[in-house]
Specification:
Helices cover 41% and strands 16% of the residues. The protein is of the alpha/beta class and 263 residues long. The protein has a single domain, classed as Rossmann fold. Helix 4 packs antiparallel against helix 7 and helix 5 packs antiparallel against helix 6. The protein is globular and about 45 Å long. The relative contact order is 0.16.
Length: 263
């Protein structure tokens, strides 16, 4: 099977430069439906990671996807198949770090990275606030292991935020629940146990960090840390709340990305 079929790749737009949109944990390319159409002056690329959305589930393996490097390999293979060079990578949540890893391996693929709600490490450490203690992360993963549907129903609305708009939490819950539980558990471990802080200073691309208010997954201190440690970065503190501004505040998200890529 071709890479483009494996990852359910969709290409639109007609611009000379490519813009790739990468979804977060428990999601698929549909999460970009309010944002991607606004950038059709680029050659836009949407895809599902192996194990997500309408990707080829048979291509998933626990060995390849035991760490975020396996997902970065997906990004690189898609970019190569579409001959992306000097493109823009837009990554939400864990995909922010996945795109960063891909750019470190192959700097020529992306000249600019847009990191939406990034976190290089979710666990608090000496001199570093990740937002969770190791015990909290272990409890979260244990809950996911023992009751995936219950975990999804409990966590998705908290991750989404915006309690006055319950339809958003419902959409994320449904997205989580549509994911194969075993694949989701492995992806969660690869995500929440990762530590990529040492990779930040090595990034050569220009970087935009989009930081939401009241984000329980990636609090403001994390966004500020990412900005401080990536040499050519800028930080935008958004009015949007929660962890998914691509759904909850697409206009603000589009405007911030547009300013960055037009500069």
């Amino acid at each position: 099977m071709s890479v483009l079929a494996r990852n359910n790749v969709k290409v639109a737009g007609s611009g000379p430069a490519a813009m790739m949109f990468a979804h977060g944990f428990g999601c698929d390319q549909n999460m970009w439906r309010f944002v991607e159409p606004e950038f059709r002056d680029f050659r836009t690329i949407l895809f599902d990671y192996v194990g997500a959305g309408r990707s080829d589930l048979s291509a998933w393996s626990p060995e390849r996807y035991a760490s975020l490097d396996g997902y970065a390999a997906d990004v690189i293979e898609i970019a190569d198949a579409l001959e992306v060079r000097g493109g823009v990578f837009v990554g939400h949540s864990v995909s922010a770090i996945i795109g960063l890893l891909a750019s470190l391996q192959r700097p020529e693929l992306f000249s600019r990275l847009v990191l939406v709600g990034p976190s290089p490490c979710y666990v608090d450490d000496e001199g570093y606030t990740g937002g969770f203690s190791r015990e909290q992360i272990d409890e979260l993963l244990d809950f996911l292991d023992s009751n995936f549907l219950g975990w999804s129903a409990a966590m998705a609305p908290l991750i989404m935020g915006n309690p006055d708009r319950p339809d958003l939490g419902d959409e994320l819950t449904n997205s989580f629940c549509a994911t194969d539980p075993e694949i989701a558990k492995a992806f969660a471990r690869a995500t929440f146990l990762s530590d990529n802080r040492a990779d930040l200073p090595r990034v050569e691309a220009e970087v935009l960090v989009l930081q939401c208010a009241e984000d329980m997954i990636a609090p403001q201190a994390v966004g500020e840390y990412v900005h401080r440690n990536i040499p050519r970065s800028q930080l935008v503190l958004m009015r949007a709340t929660g962890h998914c501004p691509n759904l909850s505040a697409p206009d603000e998200t589009v405007a911030a990305i547009r300013r960055f890529v037009s500069a």
